[in-house]
Design a protein that fits this description.
- The protein has about 350 residues and is of the alpha/beta class.
- It has a ten-stranded mixed sheet, sandwiched between helices. Strands 12-11-13-14 form a four-stranded parallel sheet, with helices on both faces.
- A hairpin with a 4-residue loop joins strand 2 and strand 3.
- The longest helix has 21 residues.
- It is elongated, with a radius of gyration of 24 Å.
- The N and C termini lie far apart (about 65 Å).
């Protein structure tokens, strides 16, 4: 058995050619040691039976114990699991990329899968460049302490893997926290820098999302009104977004002005586009119009039971379908903005009672 080739890489700005070489080895069924922010890992193509047999032999892992996989984007988790509970998305939205592995039901019926998005440039680039699903256990023999630098990884694995990317010492030096979502309550089954109380605080927060078109008027009013009314509540997280936000911008001047009349400062608001993760993590979604609601459901059909028309909760709604949309005040008079704010405020009062 020969020695493993070692390539030194800059963890913050790795050489693309070195990443490409490592990715090519993984695609061809080889094994590559690489750094993450927690410990060093071994990368293998999880869909290549020979590579996985070799990985088990190198790790001396018993049959039946599964390897977690890495992803480079939060949303890719949906490729591997159909689990849709908001708690999962609350947790990955807060801690990915980062030292968190989640155990969720696999799309293969009856099985589970561990998934992590590491907070390390080398690891993320390797996942992206490989173009395959990477299994990535820690780079140590089963039962031994996970390595915190490349030299430690090679003490037992030199010659057993094809390549090692040496990115220097890791940040944490302990394996990622594992949270099992297949149990009744999301449970930490391996301790790491994220604790069970951290998990509980995150998933127990009620997440409210307001949706309009440009996230500059109506949804901003709703977000800031609700934040003002629930200012003492640490168990509620409130956001707004737009279905057609392409460039980040401030709230409209009239929106800022009418909120200021209520003693609310929205001058620092920055618009954000409606995203899949924010929809999936939300416990309550309030759309300004029926068209917005349809756009939400087109993107994420699974949130149907959590999305409402905001005006359903306003006193001005008298049961006629034509009254269900909150009119867009953009380009209209200041009085139109004041009227819009009044309608939204009536709905917010009812929502406060629900939360």
């Amino acid at each position: 058995m020969g020695t493993t080739k070692v390539l030194k890489v800059n963890s913050a700005l790795p050489d693309p050619e070195k990443i490409a070489e490592a990715a090519r080895i993984v695609r061809q069924g080889g094994l590559v040691i690489f750094p993450t922010e927690t410990v060093y890992g071994i990368a293998a193509d999880s869909n290549n039976p020979r590579a996985m047999d070799r990985l088990r032999a190198v790790k001396r892992r018993v049959d039946g114990k599964l390897f977690s996989i890495l992803v480079a984007q939060r949303g890719i988790i949906d490729n591997y699991s159909s689990y849709t509970h908001p708690n999962l998305y609350k947790l990955i939205d807060k801690y990915w990329p980062g030292p968190l592995t989640v155990i969720v039901p696999s799309r293969q019926q009856g099985e589970t899968i561990g998934i992590r998005m590491p907070d390390h440039t080398v690891a993320l680039r390797l996942v992206e460049e490989s173009g395959c699903t990477i299994a990535a256990p820690s780079a140590n023999l089963e039962g031994k302490k996970p390595p915190t630098n490349c030299q430690e990884a090679l003490e037992d694995l030199d010659g057993a893997v094809d390549l090692a990317l040496d990115g220097g010492a890791v940040d944490f030096g302990i394996s990622s926290t594992i949270v099992d979502f297949t149990q009744i309550h999301p449970t930490v089954t391996r301790d790491g820098v994220i604790t069970q109380p951290d998990v509980d605080r995150t998933i127990n927060k009620k997440c409210v999302l307001f949706v309009c078109t440009g996230n500059s008027c109506r949804s901003v009013m709703a977000e800031y009104l609700l934040k003002a009314k629930l200012s003492t509540r640490e168990d509620v997280e409130i956001h707004s977004a737009g279905t057609s936000v392409y460039f980040k911008s401030a709230a409209s001047q009239d929106t800022i002005a009418v909120l200021r009349q209520r003693g609310i400062n929205a001058a620092e608001h920055v618009s954000q586009p409606l995203g899949t993760i924010m929809l999936k993590k939300a416990d309550l979604i309030f759309a300004m119009t029926r068209a917005h609601r349809m756009q939400v459901l087109e993107r994420v059909p699974s949130v149907e039971k959590r999305v409402y028309l905001l005006k359903e909760f306003a006193n001005t709604h008298r049961g006629f379908e034509a009254d269900l949309d909150v009119p867009d005040p953009i380009g209209q008079t200041h009085e139109a903005y004041e009227g819009c704010l009044l309608t939204i405020d009536e709905a917010i009062e009812k929502i406060v009672e629900l939360i």
